[in-house]
Specification:
Elements (H helix, E strand, L loop, with lengths): L1 H20 L17 E3 L17 E4 L8 E4 L10 H4 L4 E4 L9 E6 L3 E8 L5 E2 L4 E3 L3 E8 L2 H6 L8 E5 L5 E2 L1 E3 L4 E3 L9 E3 L12 E2 L8 E8 L5 H5 L11 E6 L4 E4 L3 E3 L3 E7 L5 E7 L12 E2 L6 E3 L7 E3 L2 E2 L13 E5 L5 E7 L7 E9 L7 E9 L6 E2 L4 E3 L3 E7 L5 E7 L26 E4 L5 E7 L8 E8 L13 E9 L3 E5 L3 E3 L4 E7 L7 E7 L2 E2 L8 E3 L6 E6 L1 H6 L3 E9 L8 E5 L5 E7 L2 E9 L6 H12 L7 E10 L3 E3 L5 E2 L3 E8 L6 E8 L15 E7 L7 E8 L6 E9 L5 E9 L37 H20 L1
Parallel strand pairs: 1-5, 8-17, 19-29, 31-37, 39-49, 51-57
Antiparallel strand pairs: 2-3, 4-5, 6-7, 6-9, 9-14, 9-15, 10-11, 10-16, 12-13, 16-17, 18-20, 20-27, 21-26, 21-28, 22-27, 23-26, 24-25, 28-29, 30-32, 32-35, 33-34, 33-36, 36-37, 38-40, 40-44, 41-42, 41-43, 41-45, 45-49, 46-47, 47-48, 50-52, 52-55, 53-54, 53-56, 56-57
Length: about 800
């Protein structure tokens, strides 16, 4: 029934529109009458060009350019011309009445028709382009399109007819007119007067709107809009060509006004942001506020609307908005800084606006109701959304295993989702009950005074970190608790706040050391190695003391060695140093600077080359004894005095002590013994040289001497560089010898140290032939072995008498003579 009534109403409006344009119908031929130079369009037919051509000729000409030959076309008639696509489709532009380019005079200008860019404007919303979007069913709309067909109506005076605007309802009915509050506008015979044409006239004037969407006959839903042109049958001839005779179709949706409010998250951890989105009428102002917070006290704060947002104006009178009878916004938000909690917001052309809120540590953890309502005057159109703000969490961890030596750097880190800063303090034996400051634990932190805490900023990823240098904190060994809090609150005021703790064990630093050898050969390097816990940045001091010797004498300062990250250190005493050291006992003291990371026992230079060992207590240096120069203490006395100084109760340094011996270097060769040509044997020995020292071992024939050029100069022997290895009592060395290529001779063994001044020599003999092997026992015949019978031709062998002791002596004598003869050869 509604559609039927709607159709009757539109039919009546159409009849009225036809009567309104009836007087113009007298000029039916004007739209076909062409004057010289007018624009005509491909597809038009029945055009009268008699006013364009002089004389009776019906031939016209087209030039591609000034140098081209004219293209002739005989129209056949002056009064009924068709601008066919086959003749004119590839020859658009001006056509002339002569084939001579210089004498040409325009007949008409041929163009393809163009209709495009149909747009729907919401006049009520400030002439917003809502093409493809939604209009609220209260708004006044206008329609515009772009076309080059306006030249027809500007050039051909009195022309009737025109373009048709097609509006199709959600039910598929095509309307022939649109109605606003005061008049109807036909959608046929539209004569555009400019490239972009508003059907109702000036789009910014509400009176020129052609479509009042509040009229009940315009049902909610999506409408399709397009423009067609069949002026002088151009669409019939060209067809429905998009962009030429028919524009592309656009849509607009009519809907009743609604308002919705949504949040991007239901729950937000305090110190983070959230946003709400208003969806309502396009380009419309609404009031937004944090409802139900009027009772908040001076220390309770709701989420705050972020300032300087597009289409969001804080307050701007919003608190005066009466959102229900007898109640305005100011009666629903906090009295302190109310402008932070309400704003005027304006939707975009699409009907949306997003508003951001921020929270911080001071935001009360609660569930909040955000409300949005239509702007003034007040009405009952509103929506709400709830967002819960929760407290975050604070965590703390420490690097390593939780056990640290004083002097180490401890990396504290964690997360904080409940504040912009993390505050640290420490508790433990005999420290302030409410908590001590991390760098001076004996000094209490002051509640809610941030400067008394170690404060670390929370990064964008909610993490924080702090490197705690324990070198000067002055803690005793023991177990302690470190607190990380989201506010500068001490231990007595942690109720209701977020915090975390970690327990750590603090240990006393120490130092251990060993020497690479207990006995050192002069000219040999050795090492003092050890471990110094507590991360002493000054390293450790190495004192070496002996008779008339102190390793710092050359520079009048004590020697130090850097400690590695793992607590290890290594101090080298080089070959040049040990070479000049006298033989005897030496004392080593390795000193650790301990808690204050300062050597409280040090040296200072006096006059006349004197160097003092001094103690520094509370910034005052006191000399203890002379370590270099006239009156110096010697060896063990100096070591004992140094240890006594470090042992002073006023000194926090600690130490370890060692001794070692310096000896003249020596090398010993174990007995080699006689060997035969072809033997494989080992030449070895002992030494006090250090492990891994290099020794050159030479085995040389005693008969090796210079020869004449014509003589054979064979060399028999071996040379090799070997390493000193560790032994049970003394260090050892050895070299393997293969005597296969040796001549029988006496051989000299010479062993020489490469770095130290030490050699050793011995001899051995290589004999000719193989050593006598023991005679094998005769094999007893078994029961299964038959005795061998002598043959008739075999005479029995008579046993000879065994040689006596005298014959054996004679054999030895012959061997000695043979050896002498060989040596002479």
């Amino acid at each position: 029934m509604t559609s039927k009534k709607f159709g009757i109403a539109l039919f009546a409006l159409l009849v009225m529109a036809l009567f309104a344009v009836a007087p113009a119908m007298a000029s039916t031929d004007a739209i076909k009458s062409i004057q010289k130079g007018d624009t005509v369009f491909v597809g038009e037919e029945g055009l009268n060009i008699s006013q364009c051509i002089d004389g009776a000729s019906t031939t016209i000409y087209w030039f591609k350019d000034s140098t081209s030959t004219a293209f002739p076309l005989d129209l056949g008639s002056n009064s009924s011309v068709i601008i066919g696509e086959s003749d004119f489709g590839t020859r658009t532009g001006f056509w002339y009445n002569t084939s001579v380019y210089a004498d040409k005079e325009a007949v008409f200008n041929v163009q393809y028709p163009s209709i495009s860019n149909v747009q729907i404007y919401d006049v009520t919303a400030g002439n917003e382009d809502i093409t493809g979007e939604t209009a609220i069913t209260d708004d006044l709309l206008n329609i515009a399109f772009q076309s080059n067909l306006y030249s027809i109506f500007n050039e051909r005076a009195g022309a009737v007819g025109g373009l048709t605007v097609k509006v199709q309802t959600p039910d598929g009915i095509t309307l022939t007119a649109l109605v606003n509050s005061s008049a109807s506008t036909p959608l046929t015979a539209i004569q555009p007067s400019a490239q972009k044409f508003y059907v109702g006239g000036d789009a910014s004037a509400p009176a020129n709107a052609i479509w009042d969407t509040s009229i009940s006959t315009y049902a909610s839903g999506t409408y399709k809009v397009w423009v067609e042109s069949n002026v002088n049958s151009m669409k019939d001839n060209l067809g429905s060509v998009s962009g030429k005779t028919v524009s592309p179709t656009v849509e607009v949706t009519l809907d009743k006004e609604t308002i919705t409010l949504t949040a991007d998250k239901e729950t937000v951890v305090r110190n983070n942001q959230f946003a709400v989105t208003v969806e309502g009428k396009p380009s419309t102002e609404y009031i937004l506020w944090v409802s139900g917070t009027h009772s908040f006290g001076a220390t309770e704060f709701p989420p705050v609307i972020i300032a300087n947002q597009k289409d969001v104006t804080l307050n701007a009178g919003a608190w005066n908005y009466t959102y229900k009878t007898g109640t305005n916004v100011s009666m629903d938000i906090p009295t302190t800084n109310p402008e932070l909690y309400c704003a005027n917001v304006t939707t975009s052309s699409s009907g949306k606006v997003t508003v951001g809120f921020s929270t911080d540590t001071n935001t009360k953890d609660s569930t909040y109701k955000i409300r949005v309502q239509r702007g003034l005057p007040a009405d009952n159109m509103y929506d709400t959304v709830k967002v819960t703000v929760e407290k975050g969490a604070v965590t703390i961890t420490a690097s390593g295993d939780g056990s640290y030596y004083l002097g180490e750097e401890v990396e504290l880190s964690g997360t904080n989702t409940d504040g912009d800063n993390t505050y640290l303090f420490i508790t433990g034996p005999n420290l302030p009950v409410a908590g001590g400051q991390l760098l001076t634990p004996a000094t209490a932190v002051t509640n809610n005074v941030a400067s008394t805490f170690i404060s670390r900023p929370v990064k964008s990823d909610d993490t924080w970190d702090y490197k705690w240098d324990t070198a000067t904190v002055g803690l005793d060994a023991g177990t302690y608790t470190i607190y990380a809090v989201n506010q500068p609150y001490d231990k007595s005021h942690l109720s209701g706040t977020k915090y975390d703790t970690i327990s750590i064990v603090v240990k006393k630093p120490f130092v251990t050391a060993t020497t690479s050898a207990s006995t050192v050969a002069k000219g040999d390097k050795f090492y003092i190695r050890g471990t110094a816990e507590g991360n002493p940045t000054q390293g450790v001091a190495i004192w070496i003391l002996g008779k008339n010797y102190w390793n710092g004498a050359a520079t009048s300062s004590m020697e130090t060695e850097t400690v590695n990250d793992d607590g290890s250190f290594e101090y080298e005493v080089g070959t040049a140093t040990t070479k000049d050291m006298a033989s005897g006992q030496y004392f080593v003291v390795v000193q650790h600077p301990m808690y204050n990371d300062v050597f409280d026992v040090d040296v200072s230079a006096g006059v006349g080359g004197i160097v003092y060992v001094q103690e520094t207590v509370s910034g005052t240096a006191n000399s203890q004894f002379i370590i270099a120069g006239t009156g110096k203490l010697q060896g063990s006395d100096a070591a004992e005095a140094l240890i006594n100084a470090i042992n002073s109760p006023d000194i926090d340094d600690t130490y370890t002590k060692l001794t070692f011996l310096v000896e003249e270097p020596w090398i010993r060769i174990n007995s080699v013994g006689d060997h035969y040509v072809g033997d494989q044997f080992k030449i070895s020995g002992t030494t006090n040289l250090a492990v891994d020292d290099d020794l050159i071992v030479e085995v040389t024939s005693s008969s090796f001497s210079p020869t004449q050029k014509t003589q054979s100069g064979e060399f028999s022997g071996k040379t090799e560089t070997v390493k000193v290895t560790a032994g049970e009592t003394f260090n050892e060395w050895s070299m393997d010898v293969d005597a296969a290529a040796f001549k029988p001779d006496d051989y000299i063994v010479n062993v020489e140290a490469i770095e130290a001044d030490a050699t050793a020599t011995t001899t051995f003999t290589v004999l000719k032939g193989e050593p006598v092997k023991p005679t094998e026992a005769p094999v007893e015949p078994t029961e299964t072995t038959a005795p061998v019978e002598p043959t008739a031709t075999t005479a029995p062998v008579e046993p000879t008498a065994a040689p006596g002791f005298g014959a054996f002596v004679a054999l030895i004598g012959l061997g000695a003579v043979a050896a002498l003869v060989l040596r002479k050869d």
